[in-house]
Amino acid sequence: MSLLLLAGAALAQATGSITFQIDNVRNARGKVLVAVCPQAKFLKEDCPYNAEAPARPGTVTVVVPNVPEGDWAAQAFHDENGNEEVDQGFLGIPKEGVGFSRDARIGLGPPKWRDAHFIHQGRPGLMRLRLRYMTGPSGPPAPRGR
User: Fold this and answer.
1) Which secondary structure element, helix H or strand E, spans residue 29, and what is its range?
2) Residue 143 forms part of a structural domain
3) Within 10 Å of residue 35's Cβ, how many Cβ atoms?
4) Are the C-beta atoms of residues 120 and 72 closer than 8 Å to each other?
5) pLDDT-based confidence at residue 6 (cuts at 50, 70, 90)
6) Distance in angstroms (rounded) separating the CA atoms of residues 99 and 105
7) Are the C-beta atoms of residues 133 and 26 closer than 8 Å to each other?
8) pLDDT tens sequence across 52-65
9) 68, pLDDT greater than 60
10) Quick one: which of 31, 33, 101, 120 could link to 74 by a disulfide (CB 3.0–4.6 Å)?
């Protein structure tokens, strides 16, 4: 029976954490949330792998644990008011900072899957992305004296 358990373990899908360095966080209000999504869940609220960290101006590190190997895309946002959703204004424009894996650009709408997806090998990895704010200040305040 132990040979069967070993064979099953060898066939198990590899998983690894993904460390996200989220740049351009504009203030210390709320938290920064990251969701790692398969194509069918991209741009939706029910992605299977999620993590968060307290916000602070500049760069915030968020570690999403146990992500299986495969084709994924990440979406991140700065939840300044702590309601765990991206607040939107006129015409659905986000009021809070948003960002995507591969630093996919935001045009007249959210990025396409093809611009944000990446292959995760099931080992620990590092990814950087930048939040974009469509309203209000667009990043951390400038240091005093400048």
Assistant:
1) none
2) no
3) 23
4) yes
5) very low
6) 8
7) yes
8) 999 999 999 999 99
9) yes
10) 101
SS3 100: strand
What are the pLDDT digits (tens) for 104-122?
988 888 999 999 999 999 9
Q: How many domains are contained in the chain?
A: 1
- Give, for 23, the enclosing helix (H) or strand (E): strand 15-25
4 is a domain residue: no
Whose CA is closest to 80, among 24, 31, 34, 132?
31
Q: In angstroms, rounded to a whole number, what is the distance separating the alpha carbons of residues 14 and 137?
A: 41
Residue 142 belongs to some domain of the structure: no
Instruction: Please indicate, yes or no, if residue 34 is contained in any of the structural domains.
Output: yes
Give the range of the structural domain holding residue 80, as residue numbers without chain letter.
13-130
